[in-house]
Fold:
Amino acid sequence: MSKNTETPAAGGAVAGDLKLVNVTKRFGDFAAVKDLTLTIPQGSFFALLGASGCGKTTTLRMVSGLEEPTAGRVLLGDHDVTRLRPYKRPVNTVFQNYALFPHLTIAENIAFGLKRRGVKDVKKPVQDMLDLIELSHIGARKPNQLSGGQQQRVALGRALINRPQVLLLDEPLGALDLKLRRQMQIELKRIQTEVGLTFVHVTHDQEEAMTMADTIAVMNLGRIEQLGSPTDLYENPRTTFVANFLGQSNLWPGKASGTVGEHLRVRLEDGTGVLIPSARNNASGDEVIVGVRPEKMSIHASADEVPDGRNMLTGGVVTDTSFVGVSTQYVVKVAVCDELGVFVQNDGARIFRPGSDVVVSWDPSQGFGLDGKQDIDAGAEADLEAGS
Structure:
């Protein structure tokens, strides 16, 4: 067997990044994944984020060996594993349904993989894993005696006990309620940091990806729309799809009309001129979509209250006000947009009721520019679907 097709050693002995090179997967005439090239650094927590049907789960299944690429290669370090059977890859998967053995105790579930490999003395590694997932006090219980979060940790421990090179997480928190899901997000990140293995997490939940991942690949229609850190993707989206899908954005079409220092001036459809940083402008021509996140905006009773140097939209009317604890979320109708979002921290600021006449403003440094030839609503429906 040649070097690059040699079966990697079990137990995570092989080091290296996970690489997908020009990977395509077709089902008949439908291309679920299209010419995908991606490097996932060893030891990182990586998320594939997207709505249903975007290709993220198919990508995960090609890494695990459950699907074979129509074209392209999957590499673990220097080893080409594209044609290897799943059990020959140093890869384990944790699914949403956990798939625990109901007749075995927690400790026995975790020990299963070791015993299957012929490991005779499993007591210490199982105890170490129970300590890692913080369930050593209930190792003798059966799965039906556990909460959803505890079952998830057992499934994680069973997958980690063999020290795979890569752990794949397929919507692992989808069956949990919101509070438990948020607790498990913290737990998963803690465990990944402690074990130092590569985690590849598939999810449609933006908050989940942002909370845990070092790097996120936002997928759409079988391709990666944008790849980067959670902060970079949120603060500097390069497409309307990413701006709409990852959080919320106010987007308005306009045309570039010159520069002012390090800023680009854009004239919106109602004639209002606003500034965006030239460094955050991803438009290739004069047609520019101006974007601002709702929490970057402020709301005022009149233009007189707006500090000098800020962008401003006048003639606004509040159409909806929602108190959500840490902030009040406004929907404002202005000339360039019927439903502009403004999120204001609840720190004693004045509350505006529906029907109030208002002005909205934001610091020019907080805006960004996107190519005006894109669909301004791209990703909005995908966001609704992912959140359902």
User: Anything to note?
Assistant: The first helix runs from residue 56 to 64. The longest strand covers residues 311-323. The chain has nine helices and 20 strands. The radius of gyration is 25 Å.
